[in-house]
Amino acid sequence: MKSVSFLTDFYYKNLFPTLEKLESDRKSLRHKIIFIAITYTAIFAVIAYTLGNFYEFIILAYIALGAIIYRFLVHDYTHEFKMSVIKPLIHAIDSSLLYSSATHISEYLFEHSKLFSDLDKMSGNDYVKGQIDGINIQFSDIHAQKKNQNSKGKDTWSTIFQGLFIVADFNKHFNGETVVLPDTAQSTFGDVIGHWLQANNASRDELVKMDDPEFEKEFVVYSTDQIEARYILSHSLMKKLLDFKHKSKQSVYISFIGTHIYMAISYDKDLFEPSIFHSLLDYKVAMEYVKTLHLAIGVVEELKLNQKLWSKV
Amino acid sequence: MSVTIIVLIAITLILVLMYNSLVAKKNQVENIFASVDTVLKKRYDLIPNLVASVSKYMEHEKSLLEEVTKLRAEATKPDISDAHKIALDAKISSALGSIMVAVENYPELKANENVMHLQHTLHEVEEQISAARRAYNQSVTDYNNAIEMLPTSFMASLMNYRRKQVFEIALSERKNIDVKELFN
Fold it and tell me: Which residues contact A68 (CB under 8 A, 6 or more apart)?
């Protein structure tokens, strides 16, 4: 696995000509967006002023139409960026990986992971699939939503999960279902009440108390099989998952179902999108692309998924 | 009058809940111990095979092999107590560990495919045993907590529930592998 510093070098050295070209595209695009935004706002202000009524409707139309125009404006630039920056970066890590900028992990896999329930709508992009050290891995950016009805009977959408969703082969064989979630109850309500709430969570399987205090503090484990959960979550895997969580600095959801490990790392934004108002040569911007990709593809090595055990043929 | 009835019903309800939770904890321990037993048996089944394949080469460790065979015979006897089983398991674990270390001194053995296969299977079974042990220990801790903590402790002493023993987990199992040590 290539290191983060290798990838950063690759970004600044090999991709530099492309970045320079994109950077000039970005600047002219930014000017265009600012100019159109001002004109657009002015037109709407005039319409609102002449009508003198229907303000609610006008604001709604302003936002909706504005979003469509914005998306239309950045479309070409986004595509260009993904094909000439994100794709080469992924291939620099492993040339056998396949990348598709428009598709995402299938809804079936997302629901099969048992990590989130009540899925009504799912979107996403930046799908990567391939083999690392003989282990099948796929991941993509995901935005999963559910439909709610407010008191007026109107439909509203709320986010169940947004971020990176990874599916990989797991190196142990098991029959049950084990789910590892961030421990919110115990950290909000304290040990006693939080634990009681977790033990009585009707939507989940049996609570499994783990014997690693640090892991137990960060995560809560539910499983159909008390012994199997501990067989999967050995002391060393618990430690690796903790390290992974600390490295990603985000909430991490993990499940072990069928022959797979599912991981959802929550970010509050769409990943791998080109920056429009910051320079592409900005170190922070570059590091974000590199680190996120490195984290996702590095799962195989980080969790030692490539060390197959005897029982799994 | 009605207040007395409500209070009586409430007290009965609390007592029933306490009783049920204690029984559930006791059954959970027994249930998991049955699984521990299954994986322990898996390991006992491997022992004769292992002893047969290594005894030809291991002249100096004859006593070690004999001891493992003896321990296995004792552990597979019917009607031995859970506590006794737990004690025997610890002895077998350490004896098997010593055999595996001794194997390292015999290049012919290390290269033997049969021994290699046995070693891998044994390693896999050890992982399963470790998981089962950890599950058992947690259920015993829950049970022990319930019979010693208020308010269930009164009921537990009436029901004549006693503390149960946990598996001692060998220190070596808990330690993470030190890479430096491997190269020394």
Answer: none
pLDDT at B181: 47
Nearest to A227 among B35, B120, B176 (CB): B35
pLDDT digits (tens, 9 = 90+) for A59-110: 888 888 989 998 888 888 999 999 988 999 899 888 899 999 889 999 999 9
Name every chain A residue with its beta carbon within 8 A of the beta carbon of B120.
310
Compute the distance between CA of residue A234 and CA of residue B131 in angstroms, rounded to an integer: 7
Cβ contacts of B1 within 8 Å, gap of 6 or more: none
Whether the CB-CB separation of A261 and A170 falls below 8 Å is answered with yes
CATH number at residue B38: 1.20.1440.20
Size of interface A-B (CB pairs under 8 A): 43
- CB-hemisphere CA count at 13 Å for A266? 14
The average pLDDT across A277-305 equals 86
B16 domain residue, yes or no: no
Integer Cα distance of A303 and A172 in angstroms? 12
Question: B4 in a domain, yes or no?
Answer: no
For the stretch A124-151, pLDDT in tens is 999 999 998 888 999 999 999 998 888 7
Is residue B33 a contact partner of residue B84, using CB atoms and an 8 Å limit?
no
What is the pLDDT, as a whole number, of residue A242? 92
Domain residues for the domain of B92 are 32-171
The domain tally of chain B equals 1
What are the residues whose beta carbons fall under 8 Å from the beta carbon of A87, sequence distance 6 or more? Answer: A99, A101
Per-residue pLDDT, A308: 64
**Over 50: is that where the pLDDT of A43 sits?**
yes
B99: tokens are 């055999």
Nearest to B114 by CA among B28, B36, B61, B51: B51
Confirm if A83 and A102 have CB atoms less than 8 A apart: no
Q: pLDDT category, A309, cuts 50, 70, 90?
A: low
Interface-testing mutation among B127, B134, B141, B177, with chain A (most A C-beta atoms within 10 A) = B134
- A30-57 as b/e, with b when 16 or more CB fall inside 10 Å? eeebeeeeeebeeebeeebeeeeeeeee
So what's the pLDDT on residue B169?
Answer: 60
**DSSP of B119-162, one letter per residue?**
HHHHHHHHHHHHHHHHHHHHHHHHHHHHHHSTTHHHHHHHTT--
Residues of A in contact with B35 (CB under 8 A): 227
**A227: distance to nearest CA of chain B, Å?**
5
Q: Under a CB-based contact definition with an 8 Å cutoff, are residues A299 and A102 in contact?
A: no
The span from the CA of A286 to the CA of A281, in Å, is 7
Is there a domain that residue B181 lies in? no
Q: What is the pLDDT of residue A140?
A: 94
